[in-house]
Design brief:
The chain is of the alpha+beta class. The chain has five helices and 17 strands. It has a six-stranded antiparallel beta sheet with strand order 6-5-16-13-8-9, with no helix packed on it. A six-stranded antiparallel beta sheet has the order 12-11-10-7-14-15, with no helix packed on it. A five-stranded mixed beta sheet has the order 1-2-3-17-4, with helices on both faces.
């Protein structure tokens, strides 16, 4: 028998350090009450896309849905800000379920760093010299040497962020693929990257790491002077983002492909 989902009546508010976000949190808390994040059914994130990612990371282990309202700059991942009818909007919201990437990076001291990325995992050269990377997919070497400023693996949700700026493809959320995109490739100059199954395990070996140091970045976590980096989708972790009806993340990603 179908059971309707419970109505959301308890929301917690979290704000970035921007003055407009802090002011909005105060007004909304007065209107809808103050609830601790641990006791809330939904967390309302007030800020920009960066703060939305921070909030998602903070609740990665709780599975608590996050509803963002834009009190920042870009706001691609956020809903429009409005104080009226917030509970009605949340209860009518469309859900986007996303799985992060898990980065496992080994540095020159043989220390292993693990971090999740909602948008992308990026490898970036640390000095004036180009990075040299060997790329393997599921244990098979697919490119012996890529000379570049770096490379990244992006999720569909993150495909409109750094990946798009690096001329990577925009990926619909339901496509079940990942984008592997070079950053300012020098050799092979015409390589534009690849689309990979979402189950793919990507490994980057850094060539000449002592001479051409590379850092690995998973959203806001950075490991420097890495030797190898492995990236794979973590299907054991699922996060829920809420979007106003008619303005789903799927629709936003689709519309972005037709923007000027």
């Amino acid at each position: 028998m179908f059971e309707p989902k419970p109505m959301v009546t308890r929301v917690a508010f979290a704000a970035s350090d921007r003055p407009e976000a802090i002011e909005a949190m105060g007004r909304l808390s007065e209107r809808y009450g103050k609830v601790a994040e641990a006791d809330a059914q939904v967390v309302v994130a007030l800020g920009g896309d960066g703060f939305m990612l921070e909030t998602l990371h903070r609740h990665m282990d709780t599975g608590k849905p996050i509803y963002g309202m834009n009190r920042g700059s870009v706001g691609f991942l956020m809903n429009e800000y409005a104080e009226e009818g917030l509970l009605e909007r949340i209860n009518a919201a469309e859900r986007a379920l996303i799985h992060p990437l898990l980065m496992t990076a080994t540095d020159v001291e043989r220390r292993v760093h693990r971090a999740h990325a909602i948008n992308e995992v990026s490898l970036l050269r640390q000095t004036r010299q180009t990075a040299k990377l060997r790329i393997s997919i599921d244990g098979t070497v697919r490119m012996n040497e890529l000379s570049c400023d770096g490379a990244l693996v992006a999720t569909p949700a993150g495909s409109t962020a750094y990946n798009l700026s690096a001329h990577g493809p925009i990926i619909p959320l339901q496509a079940r693929v990942l984008a592997l995109t070079p950053i300012s490739a020098f050799r092979p100059r015409r390589w534009r990257g690849a689309l990979l199954p979402h189950t793919a395990k990507v490994k980057f070996d850094i060539l000449e790491a002592d001479k051409r140091p590379v850092s690995a970045v998973a959203d806001n976590f950075e490991a420097r002077e890495v030797l190898c980096v492995e990236v794979a989708e973590d299907r054991d972790v699922a996060m829920t983002m809420l979007f106003d009806a008619g303005h789903s993340l799927e629709e936003r990603v689709l519309a972005e492909q037709f923007s000027a």
